Amino acid sequence: MIGLEKIGMLKMDFLGLKTLTVIHDATEMIRQRHGVDIEVDELDLDDPKVYELLRSGRTAGIFQFESALGTDMLRQLRADRFDDLVATNALVRPGPLDSGMHQVFIRRKRGQEEVRYPHKDLREILEPTHGVILYQEQVMRIANVLAGFSLAEADVLRRAMGKKDQALIERELTRFTERCVERGHDRRTVEDIAGQIQTFGRYGFNKSHSVAYSIISLQTAWLKAYYPAEFMAALLSSEIGDTDKVVAYINEARELHLEVLPPSVNESGWKFTVTADQQIRFGLGAIRNVGRSAIESIIDARTEGGPYRTLGDFCERIDLRLCNKRVIESLIASGSLDQLGGHRAQLTATVDAALGEAQLRQAERHAGQANLFGDEPEQQPSTAADTLPAVEPWSEADRLAREKAVLGFFISGHPLERYRDEVQLFSTRTTATLGSWSEHQVSTAVVVTGVKRRISRKSGAEYARLTVEDFHGTAEALVFPDTWSKLSDVIVPDAALLLTGSYSARDRGEERAPFVVEDAKPLSSLRQSGAVGVSLTWAKGGGTDAKVANGLVALCAAHPGPAPVFIEWSDGNGSTARLRSKRVRVQLDESFLDALKDLVGQERVRLVKAT
């Protein structure tokens, strides 16, 4: 880069940001669905609803702030204005983090540390950043105010910092110091400021860059706060080829109380689309084995003739030269034909008959022949292809496995769904955070989706590499030989497990530290082992009558089991107590929990860890 500059060439960086496409697609969906034209360049930069979203940690999909570090910074900073976004964008860089500057900024912003200025003349320059030198432009102003540098001279110092040219920085700071002293400033104070500038030079970020980034950050946050369905649909479409990100964003959508529906030949487009205020429909473009030309054929026929009614109707109206048997079977497995009657096993069993009749009728039309009665296609009687066979539905495990085979992830359900309470109680990590090193033992509730057996070159013993999945995405784990010899019968594909393990000390500081499994328990065993209990919330004056109390005793007696029963009592003035029954233990099946919630109220019942 320096060589190019020396021969008089200009280097320019152009960023192709996928986020701009997300913003465009979201605003276009908003225009089509709500008739509202969003001018993203005219949004209120200090909109309270936007900052409430950011402070709550809902930063998935927010430009520059998706990382755990960015999310945590906004929370700690208690971001409530645009300047906070600009500052955070500059602070979440290696230099400020390494120097601890971000913590100084946060403490001063929150009033936990006195704001100090290195020189009284710098108050105006540094007041917006609480006395912290944060931007390259501030260094230019400091050089201008204290040393009398022209802005052109100050820009030389700025460029030196931007390019991390240490020799040039030192030369310019020497000039800065001498010019300041000549203008009557105290040498020690000036040298201290020069030292701060030199330290700043290791990480200095220019404010214009940070502002530009922050505008995009704010635009994405605004769309997510006010039009979450359209924003998440656009975001999911932008990552349609990245399985881990799609899984994470589907989970985020559900956290926002949005329903992500399987693809549908009657509603889906190529991308994810919003079909109702709280519903997002999966895009057909994400289905494996289904090409763009096949999807265009499906959408064109739907536009021309309306929704498809049956599998036979679907096969007859699409272009079978583009949509072969493999395409249709992939559509069925993904759930795209669920609205055409029957279950997926029945539809799969009918594909050959439907294709055969459709090919015959299309051939007749192409030959210019009419059927015996001269009926139009929509008036034709039902055919053999519309008579669904009496076959057993796929099991949930089979249905989800087929979904994942064509979509890359689960959409109509999840193998962990039945264990959601156990996941929340026992997981200290998700797959999204499993690669972050910790000195403590951690646990994660996952489904094992892959087991690769390996032989150690050193010992010749067998160990395993695992691929695991939860609601947030996928991750990998290691099982060393000693542990693998004990757990190989438990850690098998499709098993829902609570994995407990740790990290090697030599992996401290690694961006993705390998998680080493030390124990594995089936999630299905946790309730049976008594590791999960049930807690009832009781408050003074809560109004529990004798009838309810007697009903509670009878209900527990009718469902004996291994789970302990707790009472969480409150006097209403802040004093609480947690009491554990010494004699009563219950079976935590759905029938007991449903009856318990009906008896005392759903809000007073929750599952807890027994220890």
Largest sheet: 5 strands, mixed, barrel
Number of structural units classed as domains: 4
Q: Which structural class is indicated by helix and strand composition? A: alpha+beta
Mean pLDDT across all amino acids: 90
Number of strands: 12
Number of helices: 25
Kindly provide the radius of gyration, computed on alpha-carbon positions and rounded to a whole number of angstroms.
31 Å
Map the helices and strands:
Layout: H1 2-6, H2 18-34, H3 48-55, H4 68-77, H5 82-91, H6 94-99, H7 101-109, H8 123-126, H9 136-147, H10 151-162, H11 166-182, H12 187-200, H13 207-226, H14 228-238, H15 243-255, E1 259-261, E2 273-276, E3 279-281, H16 292-305, H17 311-317, H18 325-334, H19 344-366, H20 396-407, H21 420-426, E4 442-455, E5 462-470, E6 473-479, H22 481-487, E7 496-502, E8 515-522, H23 524-528, E9 532-539, H24 546-558, E10 560-570, E11 576-586, H25 590-600, E12 605-609
Parallel strand pairs: 1-3, 6-8, 9-10
Antiparallel strand pairs: 2-3, 4-5, 4-7, 5-6, 7-8, 9-12, 10-11
